[in-house]
Amino acid sequence: MKEFTYARAETLDDAAGQLDETARVIAGGTNLLDLMKLQVMAPEKVVDITRLPDLSEISAEGEGLRIGALVTNSQLAEDHRVRSLYPVLSRAILAGASGQIRNKATTGGNLLQRTRCPYFYDPAMACNKRDPGAGCAAKEGVGRMLAVFGVSDDCLAAHPSDMAVGLRALDAEVEVRSPDSSTRRLKLDELYRLPGDRPDLETTLAVDEIITAVVLPAPEKGAVQAYRKVRDRASYAFALVSVAGNVTLTDGKIARAKLAYGGVAPKPWTNAKVEEMLVGQAPDEALFRKAAEALTADATPHSDNAFKLPMLRRTLIAVLREATGLADASPGTDKTKDAA
Amino acid sequence: MTETFRMDKAQARLLDETGQGVIGTPMDRPDGPQKVSGRARYAADGTPEGTAHGVLVRATITKGKVAAIHADSISDLPGVIGVVSGPEFIRNPAQGMANAAPVQPGTRVDYHGQPIALVVGESFEAARDGALRLKVDFEAEAGADVDPDTASEVETGDPSAVGDWDSAFDGAAFKVDREFTTAAQVAAAMEPHAAIAEWQGDKLLLRSSLQMLRFNKNEIADSLGIPAENVQILAPFVGGGFGSKLGIGPDAVAAAQAARELGRPVRVVMPRQAVFDSILRRTETTQRVRFAADADGKLRAVGHDDRVSNLWEEGFAEPTSSCSQFLYGADALRFQQSLARNHRTPTGSVRAPGEAVGMLTFEAALDELAEQLDIDPVELRLKNLPDTHPMTGQAFSSRGLAECLRRGAEEFGWSARGKPGARREGDWFIGVGMASAGRPNMLIQASARVRLEAGGATVETDMTDIGTGTYAIFAQIAGEMLGLSADRVTVRLGDTDLPGASGSGGSFGASSSGSAVFLAARKIRAKLAEAMGCDADELTLQDGIARGGNREMAISDLVQSEIVEEAQIEAGKTAESHFSAGYGAHFVEVAVHAWTGEVRVRRMLGIMDIGRVLNEKTARSQAVGGMVWGLGAALTEEISHDPRTGHIVTRDLANYHVASHADVPAQMEVSFLDNRDDEANPMQSRGVGELGISGAGAAVFNAIHNACGVRLYDFPATPDKVIAGLEALGL
Fold this sequence. Notes:
- By secondary structure, chain A is α+β, with helices and mostly antiparallel strands.
- Chain A has helices spanning 12-17, 32-37, 73-78, 80-85, 87-94, 99-104, 107-112, 163-169, 188-191, 272-278, 285-296, 308-323, and strands at 5-8, 23-26, 45-48, 58-61, 64-68, 173-177, 183-187, 210-216, 224-231, 239-250, 253-262, 333-335.
- The mean pLDDT of chain A is 96.
- Chain B is α+β, with helices and mostly antiparallel strands.
- Chain B folds into three domains: 4-40 and 444-571, Aldehyde Oxidoreductase, domain 4, CATH 3.30.365; 41-347, Aldehyde Oxidoreductase, domain 3 (Alpha-Beta Complex); 354-441 and 578-728, 2-Layer Sandwich (Aldehyde Oxidoreductase, domain 4), CATH 3.30.365.
């Protein structure tokens, strides 16, 4: 770990005022500290926001829910409103990391965690994300965990978050405090940038912007939600692929389908075409197969991870079968309770 | 000089006659409370005053040399003391029982990740900062082989064979001929490799996490160029070894060299990534397994060939066919090994070297033969059990494989097994599989001293407890022999100033070193019999009371002054006349998800024959631990090497997947036969630590086939491979 200065922010203004290119916000630190120990990241200053007031609450906002940026992953996953109205979010969070890590990791930090691409993690290996212009050792290297959508010639890394995939299927928004002390809101999808030729730039946030909350819209009545994560062991492993589903059936037809995919792209992935194919149709395995084929049609896998395409297709079909009643629901698939 | 007891003939079953009743019981570990409360001192605990901290620097080329180490590049960093390197540095840990320094390559680099220098600092953090920032110039040589499949240098041994293999194989009606691959693995012991070195004059005191101190002492002395008598090693607690701490490691040599140069104690703890980079791993393998049989299931030919890999100048080659050579009989058997030399990270013994990967493929291929023959896999095995060792003709010592198979089938409910794909619960296919287990049993030279005083007994040996239960077992052996409850026996381990034991390795530690404890205690019994005025076989010792020759006395009254006896044991004629091995049978039920290809193990049952059980609880823990390793080998564990540099890419415990708790079924059952191995050692016991792995992963693979019809030949069965198998079947 390189030496750095530590500052504990007392207010949001104070925190934002201390941020520049050389500084990093620290909250749970579950990812940043690992990266600093390996000198993959070496900020000159860390600004601790964990003592800031008002960022650790989950509160009603309109008919939706406002989740403070410092709400821990454990706190969020066990919240009764989340469990009953947005179960896909609980399921997604609990599918990630370990109990110890979830106790420390925060909502804002989870969204901003870095890729676990092993070449990014090893300073002896070329990485455009760590060192722009250095090249990408992963391209001709071991590529099992890399992305298959949204990649560029400069970077193939996948976003590791499960929580963000669940949020994407819920149409969550991110609240950001801007440098002028105002707040702005953006769709989760607008938070992330695709790597292009600058994989070091992962979000659309300015250096002195801080995520203050995630906002969930009003819950959909009668939706069935599911999070299905396929990985190399039963627990404590990053997704090979994951599928978050949020599906509503009306009169035997799919009225609404929100689907997001993890482990396959530099950000939580979605595909509007797939959802359009499903909406208005009666659930049917042949339809699901067609939708799944459409999903993977434009994938660009690494030579090591072409398996993610059939795996993603099959996982999507499994989720849709359970969400629409073609198969019995298994743990991970929940019917939402009606809002109180 | 203590005379050596040679195991030349079977010994009376004294432990069946003694009356204390502590041997074999599931006694708790006396060291358990220390461990769970953090009071047990492991290698890196208890830093002496004035200790400096070292962090190893790795080579970042695959082949070539270190041209320059620019110590000045970090000399301004706060807390950095300096950089140590030199001809003492070892390329990789010593192989098990090497008893001499491993390769010391000087400036030569043989693999990406090789330790080349040590940055020393006032704190671990300062040293790590320096190690990551140290500027090193390398001269890299292009064209280093890093893929065993395409390596240009392959050493192929002569086949070891009996019978006319070609005609036996060609003439048989039913055949299986399959090529398998198994992934490279690491031991992943919880405690990373660590050492604290401290010099007093020309004497070195080394605290390190090591399994075999009698050998390690010579290895570090040879590495440093000092007499072995100037070295004392302490390793009272070891946080797991699994073979990865058999030999002296780069942490210990670098710490000792740095401490010598700096004139102060130096502590080196290897970060997890460094453990992956340079500690001996298990080789990846390619194996060809062949069986030929008649329609009635009688084996005609058995063949098992492999290709494994290692660095140059390493003598170790994973003996994949070690069990294949004696489990089943046939008209002809043939085994051949190839060793590819390449510049991947070095390989060595990892728990159950040989069986851990050899039995995966051998027992999976046998399952395929059973299917082809339409014979129950348990029956097929029972039909082919040999009367003598098929390769050497040796008699077997006690061999409970048939009973393990029969009892396992009965307890598991094996007869309810259906055809592949027949059982389904929702989107999950359910299936069962089985496999045999085996592991050669060894007796390795070992010494121990036992002291008997009025208040109790003390056992002294440099044997280690790597989490296996040595403290408990030795207290039980000495207590049983001397008529004392185990809490009146103090066990001192892990100090090279004590009599040299076998060390922990090859599942031989408890039986070999325990036999030395047994023999030392037997000598004390003879002295007590003399004091009682009776023959030794008339003497009974129980709860502190000696009885014999119509007399009864408190042992405390009998012991006027301390009685000290030392014993040494080594293998003798029984090792030639008889082949001793542990046996077992695994039965497994799995669920395979029809869409996602995930495999979940629902229950595992292992029936084991390990001769006399010394401690039913620690033996069970060993067996269960082994079965979890088997599960990991079947489903999750896989090292990935970079195809260009050969370095390990999955170099932390988030990316190298040992089985998690969620992978291990709640229903994990083990039971032991009540057996004795008279030719193994004077206690009639056998090793257990590695037996549990042997075949367990194959049973998982065989269950996958029974569940969904998919047969895989590439371990581990990650979901991508299962999906490919399902799609090939049109599922």
